[in-house]
């Protein structure tokens, strides 16, 4: 008979195996789903996994999608480590896109070398501001961070839609809800010829290493880790929960804001209503899949970006609705959470039930 | 502003508040058992799409509601197994449920976007609908609105006056003590989570069968999240949820009111109102730390593992 037995110590092997197992199970689920709607599972797997990495253009696009996912996920990893349930990366990203775009439009006739750094800074500050409000409301008024950050996602979205219909709309744009195209001086440089890969991916990877350094090498990171694993102990040691909360939230807001402004000054080149296909929400799954570890997030963001690419290709080549991506993301997180059960538990095979 | 307009606005507030009422009633029961399900938005969307598909296919709005209830229940079971049996983090599992439901509903509903159906028709309640003001505001709706009234009063009675209510609260306040006196904690929590799923399903069906009536991707527009705030607003009391739902309903149709007053504000800015109102209300309610600690179920969000007992 098979029984479930609690492990005496959490399994460090399972911590690594669990995400891989979850990805495998999600792919199996995908095959079953595609057969159910009459598509060939092997073709589906090819479109979802192989095709996104098959040629240099697609690999480039994969990196373009990976940038914002990773930036948001790195910030969220730190937040979740410190038990700050920030679900607001999407809103912070949109705020960054909005603030950065307003600055880029201010520099529309400028050729100054400072326009780009100032534009990026405006995006970063907008993202931080958008994270600061819910943080303040939580620390000062004890309001629920999950719900306020979600509400701020919706508020940011409508603010952005309002801006592209109103103050930031291109006067020569025939009334379309879009801003004017930004000047070259405020566009992020691309890294290679004939590819859209831009500086955003460099920001993302550098930020992951900075976060890793903070978390594992600095005293601040030590405090975050203690806080996440044993709050009473952290308080006993005299760590300030307010200071840590502010730090992780502003850090996450800054990175999400940078993700937003990098999208508008990078591949898009203007402010449009649909800046993000839900990157801020997907980043939650990236953070979990990367085990809330900034470097783990890099690998998880690659997988998530491939999934996004696969979704696009599945729509183009097989006529499958692109919503399939967010469904797979949900399933992936379900499987991950289920597999994580075996970090603290194991199956025991025995003939007799012992107690 | 004349009285006709006021009646129309309040009528619309009740109609807009009804899906919030259904889903928040489900969530409050779930939270009273100590389980926080952040998957409301996902369950609601699945209820909306499945309800619409069933009504579209069979031509019967009633069957649509039944299908939506069933779907909500199935969705909540995924959550229940992960959280109650496998001890998964409630916040992460709820988020996964919402992301999954958002994607799956858009996926299976892609074929019927923009189709319309014959939803529920309004039925004026005899006698009651003739009462001046109140009659028009409360008693000239459709059958689902009336069932939400009945549901609220039944739940108020069950939670406050019966043994079932006592068991539910015991499990949410102190699962260990409840377990010690022989209550099956996990069974109670399963039922509470499933009830939440069924109610979220009805709420979604109300959106796609009565409120619009059609299916559009993401049509619930955050109502599942607002319902979670509503439970906090109501301090986990069933009766207050009804009041709160209509107030939130009023906030979401504020643009009608402002138009009535002759203001002209961009509709995109007005669209923020329900979300801003939610934040403001939560700040006011939660500012009193002592009060909230006293009112929230004490074991809310905390897992219970019966194996650690014995």
Overall radius of gyration of chain B:
20 Å
* Gap from first CA to last CA of chain B: 66 Å
| Record field, number of beta strands of chain B | 0
Q: Could you spell the SSE succession of chain A in H and E letters?
A: EHHHHHHHHHHHHHE
Tell me the major beta sheet of chain B.
none
Explain what you see.
The complex is a heterodimer of chains A (355) and B (310). The mean pLDDT of chain A is 90. Chain A has a domain of 244 residues. Chain A has a two-stranded antiparallel sheet with strand order 1-2. Chain A is globular and about 80 Å long. Chain A is mainly alpha-helical and 355 residues long. In chain A, helix 4 crosses helix 10, helix 4 crosses helix 11 and helix 11 packs across helix 12. Chain A is built from 13 helices and 2 strands, in the order βαααααααααααααβ. Chain B is an all-alpha fold and 310 residues long. Chain B has one domain: ABC transporter involved in vitamin B12 uptake, BtuC. Chain B is built from 15 helices and no strands. In chain B, helix 1 packs across helix 6, helix 2 crosses helix 9 and helix 10 runs parallel beside helix 14. Classes of the chains: A mainly alpha (355), B mainly alpha (310). The interface between A and B is large, with 43 and 48 residues.
In short:
Chain A contains 13 helices and two strands, in the order βαααααααααααααβ. With 355 residues, chain A is mainly alpha-helical.
Write the layout of secondary structure elements.
The complex is a heterodimer of chains A (355) and B (310).
Chain A: E1 2-6, H1 12-36, H2 41-50, H3 56-81, H4 89-106, H5 115-141, H6 145-165, H7 200-217, H8 219-229, H9 231-236, H10 241-268, H11 279-289, H12 294-318, H13 324-344, E2 345-349
Antiparallel strand pairs in A: 1-2
Chain B: H1 3-32, H2 40-58, H3 61-85, H4 90-109, H5 134-138, H6 143-161, H7 163-173, H8 175-180, H9 185-211, H10 223-233, H11 238-252, H12 254-260, H13 267-270, H14 273-286, H15 289-295
Helix pairs in contact in B: 1-6, 1-9, 1-10, 1-11, 2-3, 2-4, 2-9, 2-10, 3-4, 3-9, 6-7, 10-11, 10-14, 11-14
